[in-house]
Amino acid sequence: MRRLTAIAVVTSAAVAVLAAPAAADTRPPLDPAALAAAISGLPNEEASGALLQVRGDDGRWRGTSGVANVHTGQRVPADGRFRIGSMTKTFTATAALQLVAKGRLELHRSVQSYAPDVLPAEFPPITVDQLLTYTSGLPSMEIDHKDPVWFLRHRFDTWTPRQLFDLAFYREDGTVKDMRFAPGTAQNYGNIDYLVLGAVIEKVTGRPYGDAIRAGIIRPLRLSATTVPGADTRIHGPHARGYELNDGTYTDITDANPTYQWAAAEMISNAPDLDRFLVALLSGKLLPKAQTALLFRIPDVKVHESDQNAYLGHGIARLPVGDIVFWGKTGDRPGYNNGMAATRDLGRRVVFSVNTLHMGGREQPVVSQKIIAAVAGLA
């Protein structure tokens, strides 16, 4: 990024066939065969399994491929839970915007005024809005937390937000790092903005940031498979296992402590819950009109150190694919590469999760790329 059904089988994929009519617009119609082909052929050297769900007026389809457990051959559950990674940011942004709507947060008030002990005194004023849109210019942690060696050594460590901020803002000798750029002058995607945003939410509410997500999103929408796990290392409920493949050996990496990702990337969910969340968010059921409009408002700046225009709004991204513009968020953790997105009219919505076998890397897995192309009618 990233009903009336009949069950069919395509290679190793369990597929629910398209049943609803296509939308009366210019979008290419959904192609069940292309969707099935996108996730077929698993497991392979790149991924052990995948699940894909498409909903909306354009039609409905869902399928799985590969295995949930490489040792038992158990199939991937269509409603299986997975580590959603940076899709957590959309939940954190929504919780913050709900506080804005209630008058408890002000977008253009400084982080320092809400949480004076989070940022070094040397840093310039940074607004809540700049955190939400990744335009703060804050430096970030330099640890590659998706490096297999580091991950396997530290996967069960518990991190505090203060430890994360110290790693981000201070050098080993205790001196303060330089800002990446002046606040508000560029966009730079990363976790640090949303880690700080989590701290701001906690200062304002006096409660863990996850409580704001539970109270404002999870409980009202009855998202029964969605959790903010804290230091819990397990995925509870049905799920596909995550693995790292090295020299023919599968290392199970499903269990891990997500506190290093905290408010930026710690959550767990499943496809039905994420679709319900997207519908409620984009249709204005979770936020008043003014705050819903902010989701789609992108800063008029460039991506840091590039000529690319900014593409991230307040918690979601503008994701053009072919002739279709989706709005949503991708996310990944070791063993899981995921995406959720929808057109503005909600006529075509997608949620997917791919169980990758090699953590890290700059490119999306080929399976994820095929999914995105098939959903957009490019396959």
Automatic annotation (TrEMBL):
The protein's name in its UniProt record: D-alanyl-D-alanine carboxypeptidase
Root EC class: hydrolase
PANTHER family associated with the record: D-ALANYL-D-ALANINE CARBOXYPEPTIDASE (PTHR46825:SF7), D-ALANYL-D-ALANINE-CARBOXYPEPTIDASE/ENDOPEPTIDASE AMPH (PTHR46825)
UniProt keywords, alphabetically: Carboxypeptidase, Hydrolase, Protease, Signal
Gene3D superfamilies from the UniProt entry: DD-peptidase/beta-lactamase superfamily (3.40.710.10)
E.C. number: 3.4.16.4
First and last residue of the signal peptide: 1-19
Sequence ranges assigned to domain Beta-lactamase-related in this UniProt record: 46-359
Coiled coil: none
Molecular-function GO term, any one: serine-type D-Ala-D-Ala carboxypeptidase activity
Chaperone listed as a keyword: no
Domain of life: Bacteria
